[in-house]
Amino acid sequence: MSNATDPTTVRLDGLTKEYASLRAVEDVTLDVMPGEFLVIVGPSGCGKSTTLRMVAGLETVSDGELFFDDRRVTGIDASERNVAMVFQNYALYPHMSARRNITFGMSEFDDEETNRRVEEAAEILDIADLLDRKPKELSGGERQRVALGRAICRDPDVFLMDEPLSNLDAKLRVQMRSELARLHEELETTTVYVTHDQTEAMTLGDRVAVLNDGRLQQVDPPQHLYDFPENRFVAEFIGDPAMNVLSVTVTEQTAEHEAFEVSLPGYDDIEGSALFGVRPEDIEYVDGEQPRRETFDATVTVTEPLGDTVLLYCRIADGTELKVQSDPRIGVQSGDEITLSYDPERLHIFDPESGAAVYHSATEAKPTRAPAEDDD
Ligand code: ADP
Known about the structure:
Radius of gyration: 24 Å
Structural class: alpha+beta
Strand content: 25-35%
Order of helices and strands: EEEHEEEHHHEHEHEEHHEEEEEEEEEEE
Number of helices: 8
Low-confidence stretches: none
Mean pLDDT: 91
Number of strands: 21
CATH class of the largest domain: Alpha Beta
Bound molecules: adenosine-5'-diphosphate
CATH architecture of the largest domain: 3-Layer(aba) Sandwich
CATH superfamily of the largest domain: P-loop containing nucleotide triphosphate hydrolases
Distance between the termini: 26 Å
Strand order of the largest sheet: 6-7-8-3-9-10
């Protein structure tokens, strides 16, 4: 649908929500750029929905301000914000046709304009043939497309989506995910999308905002978030299987563990106890030949074949468990003694107290997929 006006910037400024003694959202400051697809991700109960509902105007704000472009919308009624929301449960009226569900409440337009918008949305969503059906005659994916149709017909300044794919089965979810991405490319409407699913966040977001305990942890393009997590929480939440995090001692640019020693070129933070992070795919299975890198020994305790890879649960000296993602055709069995080495360019060190990242062995690349800065 043609969006006649320029896309909107959504500014969350110190946004806070308190329910009695509970701070559900705490001091969240974030600019969603014009036309950006921003995903808010975090574990259940971290304050994602509350944040989105405050942006929608469905929830009051305890502290902080909200702006759409330069317009302050804090305290303004939801109906005055020109946002469209899509929820997990579709929220369709069962006794109305898909068409009626889409147009219901669109009294601001005359019939001709309403019809034009419905036809256009139906075409974009590929549901033109289904408009006369009732929700019970539609599949889950089709129902969610009707709900999306209702949102896009309103030509809103901002789309707000709260786990819209969670009720769909795994295959349909993947399909709808790519349809949503395509839809966004077509409409270029500023979108805030909430999910607990980090894969969904990584695949859909121009940028991903990670929330934990009501606080914003990091906002970055997906690959940057993955390669340069700013703290232990982000490092372990983003990525599946999760990053390994082990206690080590750092001296003279070397991380020491009972099972291994690994050098940390350029490390210039405090020495002593630290947390060492390495992703399962950044540990290499060393096969017999003389390796160039330092190696260490491990015992395989469990193998989990995943088709394209195999996940090895390994035990190293002092009983630490290490997850290693490897080529499934190496033929390793549980009980095998194997040799491993770390990719020297993919190591992370975190402060053991605060969890803040103090070192990444990879060189910081410029974030990709970041939206252009606002002109303001
Ligand atoms: P998420 O969407 O990340 O799962 P929510 O934003 O729904 O999390 O909730 C954040 C926290 O606020 C949770 O601890 C939840 O129990 C609490 N909460 C949400 N809504 C209310 C409410 N209406 N009254 C009291 N507590 C609430």
